[in-house]
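Good day; I would like, with your permission, to put a structural problem before you. What I wish to show you is a protein chain and, alongside it, a tokenised description of its three-dimensional fold. Please examine both parts with care and let me know of anything in them that strikes you as inconsistent. Thank you for your consideration; the sequence and its tokens are set out here:

***
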Amino acid sequence: MTTLDNRPVAVGIASRQPAILEYAVREAERAGCSIRIIHAYSVPPSAMGSLYGLDVDEAYRAGGQDVLDEAVGHLSQRRTAAPVEIVLTHGFAPSVLEAESAGARVMVIGPDDAKPWYIRLFEGRSARHLAAHSECPVVVVPNGWDASDGGTSIVVMVDGERQAHGPLKFAFDTASARGAELTVLHVASPEEGAYEPQWDAIRRVVDSFFDRHPEVRGVSQAVKGDVRETALPAAEGAALLIIGRPHERRIRSFLMDLLTQEILAEAGCPVAIVPGAYGD
């Protein structure tokens, strides 16, 4: 039986992406778990291979294997003690990674815009898809991210559209594991008439988390504004920005589209999107 304690840190890799590998290594070493590196490749419809006697599928598979071999070589130079497993599969990358998320403690990927257009054409936009559908928290690491350049604090944002329990549990677990300070931001629209009662309810939940995690130092703060407008300033100087996923399926795709386009693409730190049911 697979439990959260022995689930791996999964990495969805598309090309040479040392930043996401470094993030995954740090997470796996803190958790004492393995790293599962996944590369999914798709073969574009073309007759060129047959015209020249080429095995197109094998060529794409070999290219995918090169990506994985380079990732393993990077981790070998990093000299991580975490066990490493590689997965090479033929399929639509967003769907493959969604299936992999069911057995992972966290899925680490790069931003969609870091991929060349010809890769996005056949593989799809994995970050946007996983933000809306991943069964585990998904962390999008900016291209070129360097842990030494950012801060050490963690910021988690909760609002009325997203279940608070999952994101808060992930935030407190992560802050505890890293020994990091935690800032909880409750974001509500200025037009919401139930703003104060809503914050009172959230504050009671937040206080209960602080009571259960005395080792975590931090603050909670109410902010009136838009989630997207609040997220980017909150990410400045942070080591990680955590956002809950909307629990209503009918609004999830729309809101996730906005989040991935405006927050994931512009935040200077890793961004975690956490299902509301995380930890249940």
User: Anything to note?
Assistant: The first helix runs from residue 18 to 31. The radius of gyration is 19 Å. The chain has two domains: 4-140, 150-274. Confidence is low (pLDDT under 50) at residues 116-123.
